[in-house]
Design a protein that fits this description.
The complex is a heterotetramer. By secondary structure, chain B is mainly alpha-helical. Chain B is built from 25 helices and four strands. Among the domains of chain B are: 246 residues, no CATH class; 48 residues. Chain C is an all-alpha fold. In chain C, a hairpin with a 4-residue loop joins strand 1 and strand 2. Chain D has one domain: Helix Hairpins (Orthogonal Bundle). Chain D is mostly helical. Classes of the chains: A mainly alpha, B mainly alpha, C mainly alpha, D mainly alpha. At the C-D interface, helix 7, helix 8 and helix 11 of C face helix 1, helix 2 and helix 3 of D.
Chain lengths: 490, 635, 477, 102
Amino acid sequence: MNILSLLVIIPLATLLLLLLGKGQKYVRGVVVGGFGLLLLSAVILAVLFLHERAVSDAAMLFVADTLWYAPLNIHYAVGVDGISVVMILLSAVVGFTGVFSAWNMNRDFFAWYCLLAIGVFGYFISLDLFTMFMFYEVALIPMFLLIGVWGTGKKEYAAMKLTLMLMAGSALLLTGILGIYFISGGTTMNIMELSQLHIPMTHQYWIFCLVFIGFGVLGALFPFHTWSPDGHASAPTSVSMLHAGVLMKLGGYGCFRVAIFLMPEAAHELSWIFLILTGIGVVYGAYGAVLQTDLKYINAYSSVSHCGLVLFAILMLNHTAMTGAVLQMLSHGLMTALFFSLIGVIYSRTHTRDIREMGGLMRIMPFASVCYVIAGFASLGLPGLSGFVAEMTVFVGSFEHADMFHRVLTVLATTSIVITAVYILRTVGKVLYGPVVNSDHLKLDDAHWYEKISAVALIACIVIIGVWPSGVQGIIYDSLAPVMKQLTLF
Amino acid sequence: MGFTVFIILIPLVMFLLLSFGSKWLRPRAAGVIGTLGMTIPALLSYYTAYRYFLADAYVWPVWGPINTFSMEWLRFSDNLSIEMGVMLDSISIMMLVVVTTVSLMVHIYSLGYMKGERGFQRYYALLSLFSFSMLGLVVATNIFQMYIFWELVGASSYLLIGFYYTRPEAVAASKKAFIVTRFADLGFLIGILILSYYTGTFDFNKIMDVEADLAVTTMAGSSFLGLSAATWAMALIFMGAAGKSAMFPLHIWLPDAMEGPTPVSALIHAATMVVAGVYLIARMFPVYLFAAPDVLTLITYVGLFTALFAALIAITQTDIKRVLAFSTISQIAYMMVALGVSGYGGDFGEGYTYSMFHLFTHAFFKALLFLGAGAVIHTIHSNEMEVMGGLRKYMPITHITFLIACLSISGIPPFSGFFSKDGILSAALRYEPFVFGVLLFTAGLTAFYMFRLYFRIFWGVDRQYEKPPHEAPKSMTIPLIVLAVLTCVTGFIPFSFYVSPDIRPYEVYIHWPVALSSIVVGGIGIFIAMWFYRKASDRPAHLAAKLSGFWKAAYHRFYIDDVWMFITKKIIFRGISGPVAWFDRHVVDGTMNVLGTGTLKTSEAIKGSQTGRVQTYAVVFVLSVMVITVLVLVL
Amino acid sequence: MDFSNFLMMHQELGLLSIFVILLFFDILASGTRYMRWFRAVAVGLMSLQTIFGFFPMPEGAAFGGMYVTSDLTVLMKNVLNIGTLIVFMQAGRWLRQPENSIREGEFYVIATATLLGMYLMVSSGNFMLLYIGIEIASLPAACLAAFNKYKEKSAEAGAKYILMTALSSGVMMFGLSYLYGAMGTMYFADMSLGVALEPMTILGFVFFFSGLAFKISLVPFHMWAPDVYEGGPTATTAYLSVVSKAAAVFALLLTLHHVFGGMAHVWYYMLWVLTVATIVIGNLFAVRQKDIKRFFAYSSISQAGYIMLGVLHGTEMGLSATIYYIFVYLFSNLAAFGVIASLENRSGQTDIAAYNGLYKTNPKLALVMMLAVFSLAGIPPLGGFFSKFFIFASSAAEGDYVLVFIATINTVISLYYYLRIVKAMFINSPGEDSVGPFKTDGFNRASLVICVAGILFTGILSGCYSYISAVGFGLIQ
Amino acid sequence: MVTMEHYLIVSSIMFFVGVYGFITRKNLLAVLISIELILNSVEINFCVFNRFLYPEHMEGMFFSLFGIAISAAETAVAIAIIINVYRIANNIDVRHIDKMKY
């Protein structure tokens, strides 16, 4: 039994167990147990990975391969490199904390939540294009109900829009995947094997575009990001956490694991188009956030900006920038999860997310507020928190290009950090500082213990990465070597 | 000297202890722990200075840098990585001493000043955080480490300015301070990116290795928009420095930052953080000098303008902390000018030396001024000069120490300010008489507004106070006294012996013509201030009325804030952000929605084709068959 | 006379006997208490027929090539059997309603007869047999459509169906006559040799094709389908939308490639355009439907378009993918119709509004419906995802990426309307039209269990596709 | 001389007359009769082709026979349904059976 499959089996088992009982206590027990176990296995996986890495120089570790559909060479092929491990850890942490942020939800919610987790983990461990795509869609569809049923505001519209846009992305992706498979000769769906094959240049062009945009929709690629503000604003807390924290990373991960890795020539040729788009996205998202009044909208636009940076860095196609991209995924995942979790805490008490209706919460709910400030600092890239490490790696890497085009874009992208400061501080100033706007808020209580667990765990991760980045950075950097080799072949 | 790393780590530990322990610690205990915690780094710094300059002196005859600690923190690529370390050389040790001393004084002072304030523990925790960040900045071995701590001091400054977070002004001020400096830091960051790209390293020692001349050789070839890469890089780095050190036009945050508690103003916005910009330029001085001399000229004139500009504004302000804030801007600009006019080697490095010297002395007397002002505010509960007057009787210690500081900043011997200012003036004279003249005039203005302040607080109208003002408690007066003593004695340190751009000691003498002119100008300034403000009179009002246009403009800080407000609110918010948000919601999102509604509309439009009548169906059926047949036949 | 030829026709004979048994049962037991066993008997016999279908059978041709049987045709018939069986199970409750109970037996008998016609369609080696099969399959189906004797909609559906089917069979026969005129034979094997690009052949082919396209409900020959599906009894709709459509697809698949393979380049573009039109038009009409049966009619039209993706290229992969697609589609669509039938039997409602809040009142039915529509929309890990993937793959394998692209983009539109159903059930709260909690009858529940199992496992377990793929192998020339 | 083409012209005319009738007649029964015209035209085709082109086999003739039988069955079913329509709607105007549309 492969340890990676465990990552899919645990949420599946949790899901099945959930179907057996309905009581609140039972549900909580099962879910906390399940996701705790998941986190544990993710950590164990990371430890084993480091151990194994030291003795093996294979590109992928813990590889398992079972033939599934022989006619199309579809295998259930799993394996991880450092990047997947990092992403798995991120997902496990966010998934685990999300459970606590959704403490009062009922069984059905958690059932969908588990399904989401199955998709996410399956996606990150997959080496086979088909299974990867399958898990990708598994992860997307529960979102519809999670937002539609348990969301707030324009939830039905938002859920529909989100699902349709993401599915449209995956429709492009499907065409692209089929193209990759058949044009490379129709012999394998395994990514590692496909990377050894060559796709003719004429085909690479369109396949690259399809795959990149397909994944890019989920990675909030401008101008396909508009599902994000509405979706995030309407989703319940823990769904926003998981969605912005983990699901959006599926896009970035796919972009480089499939689009860049399998079609390096097209990546070189076409990167400029997408660099412009992502560059716009980075700055545009930041500007878009400045005047928003809904906390979640602010964060959603901020996600557009930050996730734009992920794709931006990936497209820079150099080792450092790509390392930065993965770090940024990690960092943004943790940070945005923290944000959403805290927005959830605030919203559940004040019943508003309009920053004009709030003020002085620092005095009323100090814990949540302090955490929010920390999250804000992480978001605007304060050293010692994860955001800084990621952004700096991206910028330094992006600047390694000698030509003006890449440099000017990099400089433009760096300007986003100022705008980020503007909207983060504006929010913090309006919501947490200042006099109490609504006297009813004086009676509100601070975060509950389960919400605290969620926040503290996320902050701990953010700080650990921020203070000691070289550990995780090293793993990512080494794991990117095959991708770089692939890129330099052409 | 491996112990030096503890100078940095202890404040960090204190920060963690105080922030996590705030629930369990009583305020008083937190304060005492914080203060004790600060004592150790201070003592260690002194010991370091002693060892480096006096005891070991193993670096003689060159004050070379020694890295006492270094670890890799983040590796970007195979040859580029950020190290975290401790680099000791003369200016970093000088800064260590300054920072720890002032910080310690502020810690002690705050025990009295902040007593009973809500969030006392938080205050001490943040002070520790600031001390940590500042010390880390000072000892940075490489430019990226400096940037990291540079950001951290910015953040702690933000938190401390916004300490009274329920007051909207404080919140606005903290936000402004952070965003303005952040904007400047953007330049710093891009500068770092350019510099590190060409030199392939962040390390100060490598970049500044005069023999290897890395920066000059590697960046010579490339240019952008007509300026060389080195010029760009160094100019952008100066932008960062200008932001932190409140150079025109990025100075706008500093006066507002006075919304923070007064001890914080003393520590951060007078003595330590704001001079980080000067320190940065000094740190990279050889690179500026050799690779980007144009930028040094820029620095000179920006500094010169700022010095004069801030001094003019300071004359008109009525909020005592604002006066001090503009005075700080002006004095830092002095240091900048000094760096700008400096040369290299022997006497030519005078500007550099005295810039650092002024930084050193200014830290003490400006901290003293702020703390003195704090003592006044503490008892009067106001910042406005209008409600003060005649306080010398009530607060003798404060009065005396304040006077000492005022004399020092006015450049009256034998106080420390005289020595450092004199060196700067003579360096300026060597550079260009015009610069000298402006600086001299500014010196006179400085003396005038400082004594205006002094007289209006301690002399002037004898007011009747509802609650009679009282002398500050011991915990506040002791730091005042210590700093006053330092102000008196530090001027006699032979700075050129320790600090010079080529790290080789040299000797300088007081240039008496320059010194005399400075003393005379200072004296005139003091005299005029005395004439105006010694007693309550209508002379100031007359003058103000005569110069009303200028006076009003200066009072409103020459409307620079409004210009910035216009840029941010009108252009960035309304002009960019608003349209972007609108564009996103209506155009980008609108397009997506149109795709959706378009489908539905099409669906609605074509529904009529399904008439429900069999005969229509038959028509469609038969016609389709025909058409298909024809098409297939034809094609 | 050699009767051994009949031995090749195992399944037809079996079905014929079922037909006869049921017919006599109905005649003899009508009006007596034995009638209550009728459903059980029908279902039981049909199950037997289904199970026997899976036993190995000889391959070969009979009656001089007029009748052909092979593993492939047996497989196709098995698929039809399963569909019919499930429809039988779902029809029971509706037939027991007072106004229908007198005609309970007829339904099974007629349905069995149509199934026999479909058998012949699949197994024919000659256009005459094919034609007869089509007619046997469609004429009784008109009776089924008009089965609700007292409902106007049902009568209208029956009338529309019989008129249109007669017209289409006329057109088709006209085409056949020209084909005959051009080639002088009706045998598949002979005709495939004589296919030439003469105008007469092409005309004959297009006219013939329209007849099958009519049954598959390809645009523009689809217009009868929504009306008939909406008006007919739910069981009939289910039957028409799945079994009848499947049989027509099989027949088309076989004739296109066996007989008209030589003129593939002629019909390829025609079919390509029709496929796209079918998918798009089906989707566009489906998005705003309010009646769930009409909605599923359009949905099944667009599904037919997807099926055509596999038919288009006569590759081994396309063949397997088509059969597999139909197999999964059968479970998904019948699951949906099972739920619709339950609700309709309970409340007489077929409005989508009636499904508001169904998850709160009848969670299990709602879940089944959700699985069904998700499978139809192609959401993993349900069967529909795999079948869609394979059918797209079969098209992509031939390099037809534009078609794949159009089809995948259309899945998004289809997802929209499928999600509308899910939204109604899960997100909307129960309105006044909604149905209260109730229990479905045993047979229907069993059928739903089968369908759900089919939806869930046909994809995850690769055996199903491998089996189909193995059988399909080598049967395409 | 009556050639095959003459027959084919007749049958084609019959076919299109049938189609035309189907499309234009109001009465359901008339529509049904039009269908019969279509079917009959086809049967003529079969016979003619058989007779003129392939006289050695009888395939076309047989097809015609089957066709006649099937069209009879079709008519039976159709009439039954039409009667049912009449019973419910009291009307056999083909344009009135359009309750379901769009």
